[in-house]
């Protein structure tokens, strides 16, 4: 058969009922369920030709001949988009951060060996992770022992990365790479990170180049890494334009757990700030009245397109100004926290 009639399908939130198309590829299953690939001949717009129409089961379509295809009626009913309420969005965001805490605890305990956390800057990715790391090191601090965890911030050279991985290679050790995206842009560092994140039972990391620095510190050219790694990044792995970098990031994702905090819009960031404030965490040190906290968040919401950034850090900056001057804080915020119009 060279054509297919979709009895009950969906394409880009549009219902597709009793429409026939030229068949490109038969029924397949993917991450989001079953689909057939068809040539729509621009039916859904000039930029959409070869497309995948989602169908829940093989009963939702049938193969037809070209002559039958010409006789089929056309009916497309737009499906209204699902609008997420503020409350639902806040619950979604809270759940993601609860999962981050749970996964961090599992990494600290060694039940999970590697995790990548992706989300925009200033939304509290690092805070929750570092809290759990501090808890895990509390008894080491009290006993005066070497800490079993390390938080690496900023750039890291390949040899520095190798040294850090060796230093914390024991089974009870944890390394957190926070805002170390430069590692992803260096092939040598990236391959070392892949080795540390590998899902295999035995993770052997090697440095086969001559290095006097490694010799001085007695670091071998090969060792087994048994520790756990958390890599925190601002990059959204599936949105990278560079094909080469995307291939590398796909390789990292396949090796470990990947948690996208799904804070993709300005609205999500504002709701994250509201969620932290509602939980009594954001302004806990300021002893503000609830009305004052609401005023600060409302001010940020109103001026979202003018603020230099929408983040928890910005909320605290404005809170500092509110504490400094109850009458002039908005003017101070406009001057120091906003872009020049």
What would your notes on this structure say?
The chain is α/β, with parallel strands linked by helices and about 350 residues long. Helix content is about 40%, strand content about 20%. The protein contains eleven helices and 15 strands. Strand 4 and strand 5 form a beta hairpin. Helix 10 (about 310-325) packs across helix 11 (about 330-335). The radius of gyration is 26 Å and the shape is flat. The relative contact order is 0.10.
Gist of the model:
This protein is α/β, with parallel strands linked by helices. The protein has helices at 66-71, 86-109, 125-143, 158-167, 187-197, 212-216, 243-255, 266-278, 290-302, 312-324, 329-336; strands spanning 3-6, 9-11, 14-16, 19-30, 33-39, 50-54, 61-64, 76-78, 114-118, 149-153, 174-178, 204-206, 222-224, 228-233, 257-260.
Instruction: Name the beta content range.
Output: 15-25%
The SSE order reads EEEEEEEHEHEHEHEHEHEEHEHHHH
Estimate the mean pLDDT confidence: 87
Give the class from helix and strand content and strand pairing: alpha/beta
Low-confidence stretches: 73-79
Describe how the helices and strands are arranged.
Layout: E1 3-6, E2 9-11, E3 14-16, E4 19-30, E5 33-39, E6 50-54, E7 61-64, H1 66-71, E8 76-78, H2 86-109, E9 114-118, H3 125-143, E10 149-153, H4 158-167, E11 174-178, H5 187-197, E12 204-206, H6 212-216, E13 222-224, E14 228-233, H7 243-255, E15 257-260, H8 266-278, H9 290-302, H10 312-324, H11 329-336
Parallel strand pairs: 9-14, 9-15, 10-11, 11-14
Antiparallel strand pairs: 1-4, 1-7, 2-3, 3-8, 4-5, 5-6, 12-13
